[in-house]
Amino acid sequence: MTYYFKELEGKWALILGASSGFGAACAQSLAKAGMHICGVHLDRKATMENVEKVISHVKESGREAVFFNVNASDPQKRTEVLDGLSQKLGPSKKVYLLFHSLAFGTLKPFFADQGEGINSSQMEMTLDVMAHSLVYWTQDLLSRKLFEEGGRIYAMTSAGGEKVWPTYGAVSAAKAALESHIRQTSLELAPRKISVNAIRAGVTDTPALRKIPGYEKMIEMATAKNPHRRLTTPEDVANALVALALPGTSWMTGNVLGVDGGENIVD
Questions:
Q1: pTM over 0.90
Q2: Could you report the average pLDDT of every consecutive run of 10 residues in the chain (267 residues)?
Q3: Disulfide-capable partner of 58 in 31, 89, 137, 246 (CB 3.0 to 4.6 Å)?
Q4: Distance separating alpha carbons of residues 65 and 38, to the nearest angstrom
Q5: Annotation: CATH topology of 6-260
């Protein structure tokens, strides 16, 4: 889909988790809509080809692409990214949209008769990457005066924030914490006119989904359950994000917004 909005032209989006899945699709769609992209991702050589494709698509849209291959939950790396972004933007430009799509966590049961259940460091890492990092990135953007007044924050959650699946416990806790952070952040940033929402996608066939044991069953169940008889795609979410980035959505804040084709309302 090709679209362009003059209201978004020349604005900057900072995307955490920009190399695949939702982050990659949103980077490309926001670029088509007129935005420059700063992407943060963590990839080894084997998956760098996909990163290069995302960067190429952004540049083919006539937009700037500044990407950092670092661990987004590392405080020192966060400082390095924001130092680089500050230098790139200069004194007159700021980040308009922060999109949090970090999907890295431990997929182990809490209690295991055979093998090893999740430990404290794995639990803490999962929540830090998939939930708490949103707060820390926002804090640092604000302390540097890098966030545009009237901007947007969106973070990816899932039905797992309120439902259960074997081995998904730590990620489920992270999604629930993320939604709580969204509500608190929306309250505290209202005076700055920054709206803050979570996007709850339906089951989507992404690299992150395929790391979940039993994901095939999840796909089968979601396809049968969804009124459209198909899975959500990253492009579904990306198209929604472009619309949500427009000025007319500024009064929407503190919500969990379903982008799932009605999947979550069906038992």
A1: yes
A2: 83 96 96 97 91 96 97 97 96 96 94 87 97 98 97 95 89 97 98 98 92 91 95 97 95 98 92
A3: 31
A4: 6
A5: Rossmann fold (3.40.50)
